[in-house]
């Protein structure tokens, strides 16, 4: 009987073979370690979109897409959503354990005391056109942190890595609010240390110098929940980008700025903005049916934004949690939004349509988060920025894990070359 921990791959044409060990994690399917495949057989593997490829070992987040399971450091997302806070979750992602009260107090103190932007960094914003997209400003502003904190940073030093994590998590809301306020011509607000993380951010976003901000506590509660749900999602496109950039030894600010740009795309974090735009285009519940027909038409590139997920093929556990919060926020804030009616009709129509059922296309987290952001008065262009604030906790946890993993190598995928065969250069008059 063959060793169950080995997969044997035979290339019958060349009679070369490779014995590939199976690697198991704590949970999830075992992976075939193909590290020696090229040496043994002369072949690469081909997996566009990485649907069957584990790019790394990681102890941070676990997803079972078939069962709709999401765990941060082993804790089910449902429990964290109900009992924890974003800042506690950020600590958990970074450190692997939930903090004891004194540990959390120190972490919160550190975050609170690194929230200010360098005064010189504020000048960067003046260089943008007033209608620049906030994601463009955010990516540039985060990359520019390298210019302020690069020289004294040693990525091999754990204390320096920790400080970078604190700075990024602390400054992200300040930078994000500055992007928004610059775009509407309001003066930037300094962070207020007497407020907790999410409330402080809402004040930096909406407070005007002339009057105090009155805010319904449900707004902070909803935003905190959204931040928890968005804090990490294992090796998604933006996190893999952060890791790929990080694998070159690039500093954490440059690595996270790259993650921000990857997040921006509508197939990833940009989907929450795209959902709202699409709901507005659909306009009324009467138009839902024709939108569903368009989404099913193979000759039309139109897709229902906020539906489908690369990993969750039954349901997105975050979407379940957020759906409830969505209704709560709208009820408590007294928002009667016609777009919600369109959204609910769309959800209902898609869930019973064979095309969506067969392909397991369920509403994802972005479907509902856009509606909550809108109810909180956050403009559509800022939706992906909200996602980026939360995901910074996950990105930097992965960047740190990568640096703590012995033997990490630069990421360097291979390709199947489909271009021209070798040919000789021809002078211009002979082409
Ligand atoms: N509307 C209509 N059809 C869809 C949709 C959709 N939203 N999503 C997938 N399909 C169809 C595809 O056309 C394909 O059909 P086929 O098998 O007949 O060719 C089938 O479902 C499988 O789709 P893929 O594109 O192969 O699925 P993949 O896993 O590569 O893509 C993705 C996942 C990108 C999320 C996709 O579902 C999509 O574009 N959704 C809309 C954008 C969105 O909401 N993105 C947010 C993702 S969540 C996040 O980033 C937090």
Sequence-ordered SSE layout with sheet pairings:
Elements: E1 6-11, E2 16-23, E3 31-32, H1 37-41, E4 61-64, E5 69-72, E6 75-76, H2 77-83, H3 86-95, H4 101-112, H5 119-126, H6 134-149, H7 158-184, H8 197-206, H9 217-230, H10 237-246, H11 252-263, H12 271-282, H13 288-296, H14 317-332, H15 338-351, H16 354-358, H17 365-375, H18 383-404
Antiparallel strand pairs: 1-2, 2-3, 4-5, 5-6
Helix pairs in contact: 3-9, 3-18, 4-7, 6-7, 6-11, 7-8, 7-18, 9-14, 9-17, 9-18, 10-11, 10-18, 11-18, 12-17, 14-17
This protein binds acetyl coenzyme *A.
Acetyl coenzyme *A is lined by residues 267-269, 271, 295, 303-310, 359, 361, 364-366.
Mean pLDDT: 93
Helix content: 40-55%
Form type = globular
Which class do the helix and strand fractions yield? Answer: mainly alpha
Number of strands: 6
Structural features, described:
With 431 residues, this protein is mostly helical. The chain contains 18 helices and six strands. The strands form two sheets. It has a three-stranded antiparallel beta sheet with strand order 1-2-3. A hairpin with a 7-residue loop joins strand 2 (16-23) and strand 3. The longest helix is centred in the middle third of the chain and has 27 residues, at 158-184. Acetyl coenzyme *A is lined by residues 267-269, 271, 295, 303-310, 359, 361, 364-366.
């Amino acid at each position: 009987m063959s060793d169950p921990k080995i997969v044997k791959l035979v290339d019958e044409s060349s009679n070369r073979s490779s014995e590939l060990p199976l690697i198991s994690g704590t949970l999830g399917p075992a992976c075939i370690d193909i590290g020696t495949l090229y040496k043994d057989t002369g072949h690469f593997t081909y997996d566009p979109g990485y649907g069957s490829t584990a790019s790394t070992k990681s102890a941070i987040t676990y997803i079972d897409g078939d069962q709709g399971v999401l765990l941060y450091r082993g804790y089910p997302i449902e429990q964290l959503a109900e009992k924890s806070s974003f800042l506690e979750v950020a600590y958990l992602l970074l450190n692997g354990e939930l903090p004891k009260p004194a540990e959390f107090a120190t972490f919160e103190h550190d975050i609170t005391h690194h929230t200010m932007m360098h005064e010189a960094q504020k000048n960067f914003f003046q260089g943008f056109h007033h209608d620049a997209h906030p994601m463009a400003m955010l990516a540039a502003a985060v990359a520019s942190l390298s210019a302020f904190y690069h020289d004294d940073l040693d990525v091999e030093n754990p204390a320096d890595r920790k400080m970078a994590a604190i700075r990024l998590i602390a400054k992200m809301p300040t930078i994000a609010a500055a992007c928004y306020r610059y775009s509407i011509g309001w003066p930037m607000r300094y962070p207020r240390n007497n407020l907790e993380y999410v409330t402080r951010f809402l004040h930096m976003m909406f407070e005007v110098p002339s009057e105090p901000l009155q805010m319904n506590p449900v707004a902070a509660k909803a935003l905190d929940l959204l931040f928890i749900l968005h804090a990490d999602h294992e090796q998604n496109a933006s996190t893999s980008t952060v890791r790929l950039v990080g694998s070159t030894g690039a500093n954490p600010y440059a690595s996270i700025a790259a993650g921000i740009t990857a997040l921006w795309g509508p197939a990833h974090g940009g989907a929450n903005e795209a959902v709202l735009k699409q709901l507005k285009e659909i306009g009324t519940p009467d138009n839902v049916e024709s939108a569903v027909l368009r989404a099913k038409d193979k000759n039309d590139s139109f897709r229902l934004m906020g539906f489908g997920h690369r990993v969750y093929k039954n349901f997105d556990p975050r979407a379940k949690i957020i759906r409830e919060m969505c209704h709560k926020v709208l009820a408590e804030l007294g928002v009667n939004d016609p777009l919600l009616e369109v959204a609910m009709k769309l959800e209902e129509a898609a869930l019973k349509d064979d095309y969506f059922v067969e392909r397991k296309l369920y509403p994802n987290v972005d479907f509902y988060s856009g509606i909550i952001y809108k109810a909180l008065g956050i403009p559509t262009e800022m939706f992906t920025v909200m996602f980026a604030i939360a995901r910074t906790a996950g990105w930097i946890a992965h960047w740190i894990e990568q640096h703590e993993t012995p033997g990490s190598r630069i990421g360097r995928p291979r390709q199947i070359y489909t271009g021209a065969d070798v040919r000789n250069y021809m002078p211009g008059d002979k082409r």
